[in-house]
Each structure stands twice: as C-alpha cells, then as structure tokens.
C-alpha cells in the first residue's frame, strides 16, 4: 500500500482500516521529507 500521507485525514484512516480488514498483513512504506518535497 502506498501513498503520500503527510496530513492523515479520515479518508486515509478509512483506507488503512479497509486494508487491515481484508488482509492478514499490510505493508506500509515511509518516505523522507526530502523525497516528499521533490514530488511537489
């Protein structure tokens, strides 16, 4: 599961809860602020 979650909101929480409800294992990757700034 991937995404830019720099401001966690209800939609993100729903996505995470849904992923956890349909899978035994959810892998979430983290990125650095530097990479996030390059993306913008």
From TrEMBL:
Native organism: marine sediment metagenome
Leader sequence segment: none
InterPro entries named among the record's database cross-references: Cyt_trans-like (IPR004821), Rossmann-like_a/b/a_fold (IPR014729)
Organism phylogeny: unclassified sequences, metagenomes, ecological metagenomes
Sample GO molecular function, one term: catalytic activity
NCBIfam families xref list: cyt_tran_rel (TIGR00125)
Name of the protein this chain belongs to: Cytidyltransferase-like domain-containing protein
Matches recorded under Pfam families: CTP_transf_like
Domain Cytidyltransferase-like: start-end pairs: 1-38
């Amino acid at each position: 599961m991937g995404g830019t979650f720099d401001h966690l909101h209800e939609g993100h929480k729903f996505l995470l809860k849904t992923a956890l409800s349909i899978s035994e294992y959810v892998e979430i990757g983290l990125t650095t602020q530097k990479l996030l700034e390059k993306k913008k």
